[in-house]
Each structure stands twice: as C-alpha cells, then as structure tokens.
C-alpha cells in the first residue's frame, strides 16, 4: 500500500515535469500595418479655350448721314484696340463695360449700295456687310453781304477748321453721357441737316447740323453731359462751344452772342453753355447745332430719340472668327 502510494506520487511528479517542459505554442505574429499607396496625380485640367470674338452691328442698312453702333464682345483687354482700316474717317473702338464699342458714321455724301466693314483685332479680321441707303437732301439758299461771304475764304477760317478737325480726331475716351440727346434750344428749325447749301447762289457745301431760330439771348443748353474742348470766337461760326461727350461723339453750338463756359469745363446735360446770337456768318439770330462722330457730321434727329448705346432692337448682323 505504501509502495503503491509512492509509485502514484512518482508518476504524478514525472507527468507534471513533462508538462512543464512542453513548449507553449506561439500565437499569430503581429503583421505590419498596411500602408495605402499614394493616389496617382490627376492630369492637369485643360486650359479653357480663348473666348471667340463676336462682332455685331445694331443695323445692317444705314441711311446716308446716319450712324451704326458696332460692338465687339468676347475680347479681353488688348494692348492695341480694334481697328477699322477700310473706313474713312475710321472711328475708334472704346472699352465700354465688357465690350469694345465704336460709333460708325455714314457721310451724307456716301455712295448708296453695299459696303464692307472689316474689324482687325488681335491679328484676326472680322467682316461685316452693310448697305448704305439713299436719302433725299433738298437745297438751301441764303444771301449775305459780300463782306460776310468773304469769311468763307478767310485764311484764318481754314486754320480754325483744321484745328477743330484735329480736336475731334483725337483718340476718344469713355462715354460721358446717358440717354438720348436734348434739344439745346426751343426754336424753329429753319435749315435741316444735310441740305445742299448755296450762299449767294454758289455751292458752299452741305449743312452740317440744324439751324434753330430763336430770339437773341435765348439760353442754349448742353445736349448731353460732356467736357468743353473749345469756347471762343471763330471767323465763320462766331462765338462757338464744342463739347466732347466721349466715344467720339461731339456737339457744337455756333453763332452765340455770349459764352457761359470755358475750355476744360465739365458740363451736365441741360446746363447753359451760351446764348443765341448771330455772330460769324449768320443772317439772323439762331443756333447752328452740329452733332458729329469725330469730324464726321451726323443727323441729330435719331440721337434725340434713342441712346445709341442702348439700341431698341437686338443686333441684326453678327460674325465670329473661324
């Protein structure tokens, strides 16, 4: 019995020893964290295509003595503004908001028929096709003393005419006016725009504006906001005021009895610039009022009804570069 207990104790001891020497199975080894590959770089977005220039005109049929409005859209700021090399005198384009705008006058002596307009911009040529329609201009005959007629051939008059042409031929600035023009004086229209003028039965040329008869001393008002570029006494037109309204638009007020402004002044629409008179080559008290685009006279009547910068109808002609 004692042996048996001793034997049992020995076997238990051997069993425990064998168990303590058995290797403990290893658990799963920790794996290194997964590192995701960096995303492949996206290809650069393609550059947006350059804007396509779009040339439009507010009308494609223009009456002799009238004007059209050219607009060039889709063109950013340029080192050199667009040009009209085939038009004489060529109006200048001016940046107005996001567009380039030019007032295109058609002379009252222009030949009726189709006309091509080419605008050069950024090395490209944009064409437009216009039609000049005929207008009947009646005759106007006045009779003056020989002394007054001699004013037309006075050398000083020729110098003054060239000086005015130079003033109106300068590069234009942005428009200074808004809305239709105002009639500068309340009076009777005695001579219309564009009439064939005879002085003492000799052809003197075309009448460049409107003659508005009114009592001497009647206030003469600016047809629109602008800047005075001339205010002085001239040989043929007497006391004269010329306003620059920007975008090549000018108005002139002639044969005044007195001046109320001086060169360099800024004036508001309706501001008095002088008074009706009969100075220079005049046969009675009246205002000779001229509207011109650069040096080219244009018919005032359409501009008294609508603002050329806000045409009543959408453009009728449009081209784009190919």
Q: What is the first-to-last residue Cα distance?
A: 120 Å
Counted beta strands? 21
Quickly count the helices. 4
Pick out the low-confidence regions.
Answer: 1-21
Shape: elongated
What this model shows, in words?
The chain has 322 residues and is mainly β. It has two domains: 54-134, Peptidoglycan hydrolase domains (Immunoglobulin-like), CATH 2.60.40; 139-305, Glucose Permease (Domain IIA), CATH 2.70.70. The protein contains four helices and 21 strands. Strands 9, 12, 13, 14, 15, 16, 17, 18, 19 and 20 form a ten-stranded antiparallel beta sheet that branches. A five-stranded antiparallel beta sheet has the order 4-5-3-1-21, with no helix packed on it. Strand 19 (286-293) and strand 20 (296-298) form a beta hairpin. It is elongated and about 125 Å long. The termini are far apart. The model is unreliable at 1-21 (pLDDT under 50).
Provide a concise account of the structure shown:
By secondary structure, this protein is mostly beta strands. 14% of the residues lie in helices and 36% in strands. It folds into two domains: 54-134, Peptidoglycan hydrolase domains (Immunoglobulin-like, Sandwich), CATH 2.60.40.1590; 139-305, Glucose Permease (Domain IIA), CATH 2.70.70.
Overview features:
322 residues; mainly beta; Immunoglobulin-like; Glucose Permease (Domain IIA); 2 domains; 10-stranded antiparallel beta sheet; 5-stranded antiparallel beta sheet; 14% helix; elongated
